[in-house]
Amino acid sequence: MSSTSFLQTLPGPFNFLSTDPEEVRRLIPDLQRMLPMPRPIFLEDESATPLQGFPVLLSAGLLDLRAALRDLLDAEEAVQVAGLRREGHDVKAHTQAWDRYTALLCRAVENATISSYGRGYPAVFWLQHSLDVARLLKDVPRRILRRDSEIGRRHGDAIKYRILDRFLDRVLSTMYDLMARLAVATEEGEEELFPRLLTRLRDNVLLLTEDYIGRDLAELGSYFTGSLRIDGRDLLVRPGYVAYLATLKSYDPARLLPPPLVTVWESLLIKLKEFELIHALRRLIVPIEVRDGVMVGRDLPVGKAMPGSGELRLSAATRPLDFMEPWVVDPRVERYGMIYDISEFSATLSVLHRAGNDSQDGAFLAMFRFQRRINRLAASHRAKLEKYLGDGAFYSSREATNLLLCSIQLQRYYVAAVREGLPFDRGMRIALNYGPYRLIPMSSRPEEGERYEFFGPGLVELSRLTTGKATQEIDEVKTMLINQGYPEATVHRFFSPLSSKNLDVVDKKEESRPFYAYINRNGTLHNNGMVATGPFIAQLDHETAGIRLFRGQEGDRSYVVVIFEDAGERLPVGIRKLGMAHLKGLEKLPVYEIVDAVGMDQNLTEIPGEPLLSALDREVANFLESTGIWPR
Hints:
Alpha-Beta Plaits; alpha+beta; single chain
């Protein structure tokens, strides 16, 4: 994110900071390494523009950390007051308060550091936690006044900064020890691990003692008295000081300040600018609560809350940070996935290789154009390209219907590309599923931005669905031998005894279709068309509730046909249940064939008042009744 874009996301107003990227760069040269960049917070209506900020889960652990911090500062106040009264204090309670706080603090920082991978989690944590510290320390003089009016009146401001000094000494010492331990575990340098933002918090006391500073600096009376130990009240009424602070031009001692105080005010101006910049980021923290399974955002950035509520319901796509859990952001996600795979890609390439470089280069150029068309198609259906897979690609989505329509159009694109001369003309396999994936962060430095790779059971499932036959290992060996130069006929003859033993059973009638999918009598899935898993169809059933269903026929195969509209185009889709497939390394999986029903939509019979899943199961029952054969 550029400095200009970064500044545009920050909520004002700015009384001292100029929203000029050059000034921000002068103020914090290592901006991207020190400060986290705001991320999208998706609203329940995902078509709405997302907020920008930091979603932080108000987990039980985080609330415990807040309570421990409050108890610690309460114990520190008791120690300070007891010292001024020349009384004893409860040493055990004080020690226990520190121990409980540092244990929870170390847990949060360790989680944020180990799971960050360049995502700025430690910086977000210190933004959030420093705001908690500032809100508590700000009111120390008032609380001391309630404990003892005389001590509060005479020493309340000084006690505030004495407690801050003790707090920083203990916290910094704890953090140095923790980073030394984590450096061994992560194989990183201690300096790289130590959060730069914490260093800035140490050097600018305003960030740890204030949560608002107005244009007249009225909130800084305690700072002048307790930290600078000067009387700032006289300075605040001198004419011209605001202009001086805002411009940092040469001073006029007669009109502005005497020379000894110029350094004080110049330093204060830098602190005020830095305070406004970092506090603006703190104001982008959105506390997240989960109520009845729905995420609700509180204390939203200025102008973003709903009138009268101050809250917004958020989409499940928003993944809040929970610093008290090892992953911080749960890597498990539920997604709709699609993989397409060009059939016999390697075998076609070997033929092109023998034909010469020109043929091979032309084929790759045609494939490049085809993939570009697919990417535009996917973007128009709100599907995101996650990775290329050599002769195919993997896309993810948050909607079943849009991904289904994208897959039908993708198959049509392939047919058109082959017609235009795409040499990879032996078919294309498509698989759709809904299920668990894991997001693995791939970058390790903030300047690289956030980049994730999908991995886990969802991707394995799609891979098996497009791989097709259970004897794929034999096919791979055949392809390898052919690529090594062995005659194709000889290779097939050598492996023919395995086929004769019915290790794999081919249905020639099914495979006579341009695109096909079926499960043979051994429970093996043959896919050279389009298939979807049971969970995907179940989600599609929810999305299509109330839509009209039809029965369509293609040969002796019966489909439930759903007619969609896609960008103004009528798009009939046929679905039939194939049965339970045996896929390598996975449990039995319910699989459905999906076809482009444009050829059968002239002779459709309406299926009255029945959900999609029920209609599909009924078609299977009708098939069983008429044939006595249960689809595998």
